[in-house]
Structures are given as C-alpha cells and as structure tokens.
Fold these 4 entries.
Entry 1:
Amino acid sequence: MSFSVLAASRHALRGTDIALLVAVGAFILLSGFLAMAETGLTRTNRVRIMALAEQHRRGAGVLLRLIEHPERTINPVLFLLLLCNLVAATLVGVVAGRLFGGLGVAVATVFEVVVIFIFAEAAPKTWAVQHPERAALLSAPIVAVLVRFPPLRWLTRSLIAISNFFTPGKGIPQGPYVSEQELLAMADAAAQDDVIEREERTLIHSIIDFGDTVVREVMVPRPDMVAVESTAVISDVVEIAIAAGFSRIPVYGQGIDDIVGVVFLKDLMRAEREGKSDEAVSTIMREAHFVPETKRVSELMREMQTKKFHQAIVVDEYGGTSGLVTLEDLLEELVGEIEDEYDLAEVPVERLPDGDVRVTARMPIDEVNELVGADLPEGDWDTVGGLVYSLLGHVPTEGEAVDCDSHRLTAERVQGRRIGRVRISNLALTESDAGAGGAEPAT
C-alpha cells in the first residue's frame, strides 16, 4: 500500500492534534532547559560561584544557595525532566497512532529517539558542559522557583523516601559530602584562577593536614630538649633559661625519663627577687602535662585551650620521654614557622646552584616529597633523617649517601649519632646533565 493511500485512509490532522503537537514542542523546550540546568548545576565550580557572589554578580547568590544543597535541588529537576520527556513521548504516540495507525508506533519511536534525544538531551547538555557557569546562572532563578513549589517539593521528597525504603541499609544519605582530596583540588584551582591568594591555599592545605598530624611529627625531640635537674638551684636555672631563651623548662629527677615538673621563668625571676636564689628549683616547679606521641595535634590543641597549659611532655609507649611539644609548635603547623629573637637563624631549605636541595634532617617526609617532587617512602620514621637511618641500617658518617626513588640522600652534617642536614640530589637530572656535558658536538 502506497503512502498516499495510507494517508488518505486516515483521519486528517484535527485541531486537537495541532494542540497536542504544540504541547509536545513546549514539553521538549522545557525538557531541554531542565537538562541544561541539571548539567550546569552539577558541573559548575563552587569556588568560582562564591567569588561571583562576593562580586554581586546577578543570579550568583541564588545559584550559590542551590549548589550548597544539591540534594534539595537536583531531585526536583530530574523528576520534572523525566516527566516532560514521558509526557512528550506519550502525546507523540497518541497523535501518530491516530494519524498512521499501526505505523504510528514506528513513527513515534523515530520521533522520540531523534528529536527528543537531540533537542531535549544532547544539545542542551553539550552546551552546558561547554559553558557550565553561564548555564547555571541562566537557569538558577527559574530552578529556585521550581524547587520551592510546595507540591513538587512534597512529591519528590515522598518519592525519595519510597526509594530509600527499598535501598539496602539506611537509604541515600543527605549530602553534600566533599572529600579532603576534593577540597584540596578546589583550593588549588581557586589559587590558579586567582580567586584566593597563594598564602590562603597554603593555609587550607595546612588546616586539612592538621587533622591527620600526630604529636610525634611536631614535637621537639629529646636530644634538643633543655631540661634541668630538680636539685639545681634557682640562680643557675635562671641563667640556663635566659641562655636558652625559653619561658618554660622541664625539671627531671633521676634522669630525662623522669620528668617531675615544669618551671616557669617568671616564677624563677620572682623567687630570685625574693632572695630564694639558693633554693632548689623543685620548690617552685609546677605540674607537668604528659601526652602520648600518637595523640593527634588537633585534640592536643583543644586540650591545651581547655586546661590552659602551653607545654606538654611527649612520652613513648614504654613511658620514656620522647620530647616535648608547645602550643607554638602546634600553631606553626597551621601558619608556618614562627620565629622570635631567641630562635636560631637556621634555614630549613636551601637550594644549591647545581640543582640539589639541602634540608634539615628533621623535615617531614611528606614535605620533602612535595619540595623535590619525589616519592620517598613513609614508614616507622617521620623525617628525612629517619629515612636515611632506616636505609643505611647504621649511624652514617659525614658525607655518606644512599639512593632511594631516583634521589640520592647525603648526610652532610653528622653530630655524634645524629644527622643534622641532608643533601638531596635528583639522579635523573644528574645523569642527563652528565650525558649532555659528555656528548661531543655533531659535525
């Protein structure tokens, strides 16, 4: 049967059919707008929108409120998008069935696959992927009105509750949830886009790392501690405190593992003015606070704030003294080194003309890796000096070196059994430089 005969045998296009087709067009346009809105809202950069809101960009404030609670926004948009596509497809099927009979199903299917896919899905979503910020700002005011519409909000919440009932466990949690890696990536991207300063990016990284840092990583190690014996006289301890530049000094009994208290410089000066210079320092010492070396620094800082103390003795698993930690040590983990007039001017990082880097042996492994772009292993040690000890298996002599992860670690300064500074050389760069220098020029 020819197409003309088939068309002639069917009803002519009526006014209701035209109205239905107009409705189909409207639903497709609305579906395309919702598809663009969904893609724009999910792909837009929150940090960028926060900056635009601070600049009072039109629509940025509304958009920021939407993306702060995506669980309240995306579900209504997805529901309306699905509803528009289904209604449009149904109306096309009704009109095609009346006009073409049995072939109407095939006609409707082709129309739905081609037209709806192109104009209601692919085209708007592709544009939104290419221009996520513009798409989000354009759709934000209308989406804000839609998600506040009480019937729609109630319906989507009810449907989500029903879906959660059939979901194993406790259903889908209400977000949003952002991992530490995502926060760090956002801070890096914001710094690259000049939304935040480099110092602010560093502070964000420090704050996130602060929660994972333990006391052992920030303490003053036992060999660097300045402590006095409990039988020492006050006048001698005053001289030690002034020479060291410390306001608080631990006091020990039988040995450094037997810390019995802490003496304050202000108490020493007051006792000396009262004529007690020849008395033992144990008469004016105060109670010492002890913390395990595995305690998190964030917990210790809260404890220092609550109990109002600024110094704690760090003990190992056997009860021996590992070192001491001060409130200043904790703050330096957040804001960087805090130097005063008593601090020794020792440069922690020194870049050498040949490309090598000289660092203090106390520098943490993660900071060294970030500094030189290496992947030095982490283990029972926390510092680059500890790594050198572990790799060598003995106390190094000054100038002794060991290779690890394409880098050479040289113990440049060794005091007794302790490594002072480590020189780090990139073996790959060294070999390439040597090869370039040894090659003969082409003739």
Entry 2:
Amino acid sequence: MKTLRHQAYRAIKDKIIFLQIKPGESLFDIELAKELGMGRTPVREALLMLENEKLVEPKNKLGYMVRKLSREEAYDYFAIRQVIEDFAIPLIMKGLTDNITTELEHNIERVKGYAEGSDFHNVIRYETEFHEILYRAANSKVFMEVISGLVDKFQWLRAIGLSAPGGVQQSLGEHMKILAAYKTGDISEIRKVTEVHIQDARDKFASMEQIMF
C-alpha cells in the first residue's frame, strides 16, 4: 500500500509531466494538500522528492516552482535518449513478437482516437506507452534499469513537444514509420526513422521553448 507521501508524489509529478502545471508555475503545499485531500506533511515530503529529481525548485522560501529546463539540459536529454535507443534497437528486434507488434498497432489506434477527441492527457500517456512497449521487448534488465531513471524526463519533454502545433500528428506518423521499419526487420531503416523521430521531437521542444520557458 502506497504511503500518503508517495500518493502525493505521484499525483504532483503527473501534474508536472502532463503539463497541468507548467514550467515556471508555482506550487504551494497548502493548496496542493487541499486539492489532494491530505495534510501538508506528506505534500512537503513529496515536493522534496521532486526537488531531488530536479523537477521542482524552491521559490523565495514561499513554496516551489516547476523547473524551467535550459536548452542545454533538454538537448542533452535528447542526445542521451538517442544513444540509449540506438543501443536497444538490435535487442528490440531480437525480442519482437507478433503479440508485441499487435500491441504497438493497438497503441497507435488508441492515439489516433484520443487525438481526434482532443484528449491531450491520454495522447501523452499512450505516445509514451509506445516506447515503453519497445523497451520491454528488449528483454534486458540492465537496459530497463538505465532507462527507468530517465523515462519521466523523456515523457515531460515529449509532452512539451506534442503541445506544439502539429506535434501530435507528426509524432503519430513517425510511430507508424517506426513500427513499419520493425516489421521489415531492416535495422538500418529502424535507426534512421528513430533518429528522425528524436530530432523532430527536439525541434518541437525548441519551438515551444519561448512559450514555456
């Protein structure tokens, strides 16, 4: 059973990652405690956990604010993601099954439906799930250990990029190309379309930089 601290941590973290609370916006424990229906102590503990993860930072001793990533930080995350995913591609190809392919197809259909319904929260959720399905297919405990500390940051950056004009449709189209490349088994093509996908995500982030940061 999750403690109140961890419940608060997950709830606040989701608000940040899904852009319900945007970079630069303030967070006050008394307001969050009221919203979450709990005392201020677990909320304060949750905010300290999020500070350790570099998602929030103290603001004039009056609360916290959601961190504003510098361009250099964001671009480093995209570069790291490129290296990690490039490493994983042969492992994913080896572990790919018909069931996983079907799961990816269903994921794409879900995203299409949520995009048509303008359900941005679930678009982010299932766009992220697409990559998580591929990560699991790698069947590598070490890979999952490495990626586990980064997936939330990747999802945060993904949400910012998807919020750019045309971001959802572009990403969805690239997911379809990635899946098609995996179906052919052409690793060089998989690497190519994956690299384009990450570069385009970085460009979409950059286009939102002045608005959000």
Entry 3:
Amino acid sequence: MLQLDEDRIRGLLQWDQLIPAMEKALADFSLGRVLQPLRNMLTIEEGSRYLGIMPAVADDVMGAKLVSFYPGNAGSSVATHLAMILLFRPDTGEPLAVMDGRLITEMRTAAVSAAVTKYLAAPDSRVLALLGSGVQAEAHLHALTRVQNFEEIRVWSRTPAHAEHFAEKHGIDAVTLEAAVRGADVIVTATNALEPILKGEWLKPGAHVNAVGSPRPNWRELDDAAMANTLIVDSREAVLKESGDVILSAATIYAEAGEIFAGTKEAPVAATTVFKSVGIAIEDIAAAKLVYDAASC
C-alpha cells in the first residue's frame, strides 16, 4: 500500500490533468454513477473546530477522506483545512494508498472552479478578482489562468497587509473590496466570512462568480442580490444542507455543474452566474486516483 505525503503529491498532481478529471467526476456524479452520501460534519466546537467524513464509490475508484476544518487556525502556521485520504480497489476492496489530503483539497476545489469557469465565463473575460488572499485564492489564481487569459488580476483581503503581500508575490493589484468586484469578469470568493461581503449590485452583467468559502449553513459570502443570479452548484443536496449562501437566500438552483458538463443542462453563458461550491467526496477521490496512478507508473 502506497503512503504519499504532501511533498510527493505536489510533484504528481498537475492542473492540466486535474481540471478535466473534475469535469468527468462531477458529470458522473450528476448522472447517478457515483455512490456518495452527504458529508457527515461533526461539530467539535461551533465556529472553531469541525471534522468531516467523506466516502465515495465510482466505477474505477473507491475511498474516503477525513478532513478537519479549524477556522481558528487562520493566520497561524497551521492550515485551516487538513485531511487524509484512503483509496481502495472497488472490485476487490483491497487498500491501495493512504495520502495527505490537504493539497488535494486545495487543488481540486480550484480545479472544479476552473472547469465551471471554462463553461460559464464570457469567452472574452479579461479581469479576475480574488476576494481573500489565502491558499484558495492562490490555488484559484493558478487554476483559472489555465482556462482564461486575464489581462488584469485584483486581490482584496480583510487584512490589507495580506492582500499587499499576495499582490507583491504574484505581480497583481491589491485594491478595496468594491473596486475589486466592479467591472470584473470572473470573481472568486474564498473567505470565512460570516456575513455577506459581495454585493450583487457590484456585479457587471454577464460576470461569473466562483463562491468557495464560508462552508457552514449559517455563514455567507454573497448577499441576496448576488444569489438571485443564475445559480450552479456542485451538489443540490449538499448545498441545501451546508451552504448558508443558498439556504439563507432561498436561491433557485439552475443546475449542478455536472449536468452542464454532461450536456443534460445548457450552459447559460450569457447570464450573470454564481457557482456555489461546498466540495464533495468524489472530487477528492478522483483527484487522489490521479495521484495514485501517477505514483504507480
């Protein structure tokens, strides 16, 4: 049985393979080809400590992720999300690998956003806004620039020094919140905000939002006006249990991303769109299978 740490995974998991793998995984999910319960999220301490249990089975892969979510770690040397993933052979049940899941979680989240952006953002999108300056903002910067040619990239953070550091590191612009969003073609919200930070009135017609933060049923990043746009989700069932943005706004869900990838729902490319991602197990297991296959070559 393989044991893979984060350093080894970093050399094996590549964006150009991961993005299409996430398309396939979510298409299979929406077509009913994946056996996957809702994530079981254990609250250890409300607002501070959580443990998630995430199993999934597909035709070619079976496994489970255990993920800890400790938002109180923000700003420290310890990541807010840490995880381990176990893989098994689906035909015999034999264990194949155990691997660190932190980087896989980081990259698969951004890869899913990139896949959705490829389908939903305007082809001539040129301005990217990142709300948040942590690991997800950086991962989205890398993933989204694989599918769009941005001429201007902006970043905002609730801690201005963090935004300035991020901007200097990546050669982009640190700006105020509203200035980041106004006129942007693609916006990423990657924060642990408890109340909405993104106002729908700031969005240009035809903009696309990837909302990946605030993963609790009573936390929000987007206001009701933003959520009133065309809404795409990774899992209807999951967002209606886990996403405060969806639950508290009572927004209408147009489609799952996998339905668009599979061609069972039309991509609303002319609309102003919001993709609300809570992250589901098949994304992790499919990404871990990529790592396992690369390590086994």
Entry 4:
Amino acid sequence: MLNIPVFTYYRNLAKVVFCGLLALPLLARISGADAASFQLKPHKDKLFKYRKAIKTEDNGLFVRAPYDPLRDINARDEVPVRKVKTYYTSSRPARHQLDLSFKANGRDVTYFGVGALEGPSNMTVIFVHGRDGSRHLGFSDEKFGGNFNRVKSLMYYNGGIYLSTDITDFKEKGRQDVAALIKKYRAKTKGPMVVACGSMGSHICWRLANVNSSARMIDGIVIMGGFPNDQFLQKRRNKSAPKIPVYIAHGGIDYVYSWEDQKRFYQGLRKAGNPVRYVVFDGGKHGTPVRMIDWRLALNWIAEN
C-alpha cells in the first residue's frame, strides 16, 4: 500500500472530482454529436419518396417535385381524400398511442403520443396543426395519404417519440404551451427535437424559434404550407441567434400562402448561412405538403445539420 499523507490523498481526490465536473460539458457535447449522427431507418420509402424532380437548384437543396392528383390522391386512396389504401400504413403504432395531458401555464396541454415516451428517445417530433385543426389531425392514419401514419411509424420503429398537440391560441399562449411540451420531452430525448408546423401553425414554430428559452430546446423546424418570418431571418443575418435547420414544403399553386414568398425566405436563409431545404410540389394546393412531404428525408436532413 502506498504511503501517502492523508492531506495529500484528499487533495488529489478533490482534483480528480473537480476535473471530472469540468469534463461534463465536453461529454455532453460529445453525446450531442453522436445524437446528431442518428438516421432514421427506412419505412415504406418506395411509397413515399419524391419522384424524379422537375427542377433542382443549389445542389438539390431546392427541389420542384412532381405532383399529380390522379396518381397522388385517386390512385393512392381507397376513398379519395378520406381513406388511404391499407398498404400505405402500419397498424402497430396506433395500438400503442396514448391520449395524454398535463398542466402548464395554468392550462391543460392535451396531446397524443407514441413511441419511447419514457425515454431515452433517439428523436422527438412534435406536430402543430393549423386553423380548425386538433391533436387528432396529426394522428390520422387514413387521411392525407397515410403520411401522418408514416411519421408516427418512423418514430415508433426507430426508438423515437411522436406527439401531436392541441392549439387554441396561435400567439403567446400557444407558444408557451408547446414550449412546455417541448421541455417535458426534451429531458427524455437524447437526439434531435423537431417541431413540425402546418399552415397557420407556423405562427407557433416561428414564435418558439424567436424566444431564446424555447429556441435553445429545438434542433429543427418543418414548415408545411406555411409562411416566412422576418424576425427569424433577421436574427440569422445578424448572427444574433443559433442556427436552426428549416425544412420547407409547399404547394406550387397554394392560394393561401405564396410559394414565391417562401422561396425568397429560403434564399435569405441560405445567404445568412442557416441550414435550409425547400421542396415545392408542382401543381399542389395548400394541403398538398402534408400529404406529400417525405418525412424520412426531411428528418434525416435535419439530424445531419
């Protein structure tokens, strides 16, 4: 046994503990880097991947993808718009989904959840609906060509979490409630935390990204049939906020929000150095992106960035 004075022993022990504490942030960064390399495994990719692009720009970051209602609705659905053919969906995740709620900001936050809800999650995706929607929209297995079933299945089969929450306020109350949901599951998520907003729900995505306390918890944003946000863009131009990857999907004849406005926003984000990718569905209307977005492609791109 080594003959070490008691004082020297405890002094050296204290140094070891102190150095270990200093190393914790580094370990966290290493863990984050490992999480960022996570990629979703395929699930029905042949059915949901984009067909050959009509046009690409910026080394594939901008894509004009074909869309044909006769093929993408009538041939895909058993009952057009209402019920997709069964081989586009997986029934197992629906058997394990839960209808949940918790108290936050003096209100009930209600949502559906499926996957590794107790953690650790490889990736968490939260869907925020638009006007007149509800948490049921993001968990609809048969509508929108089965595409919500696909993102649900991708999370379920890849050790992730998928959530769809109710929004009654698209202003600060809505942001606070979604931020509370993000905080609840951020602690259970070792990989990327992604918020996906449809149409008017984009208000929530941008509010989350423009408030530091909620922005720090987000690793990526998906905007479907939404609109740009000048504050988000300006902060990236001024380098006053962290970069958050943004994946945009839009219909080429969307009469609610202009795809051209989103194209200018995309170009501005690229120039500012913020990761961004944009797919326009040629001939698609306002709801087309929810049906046509390739979730695995979008989410894997966010994980890479």
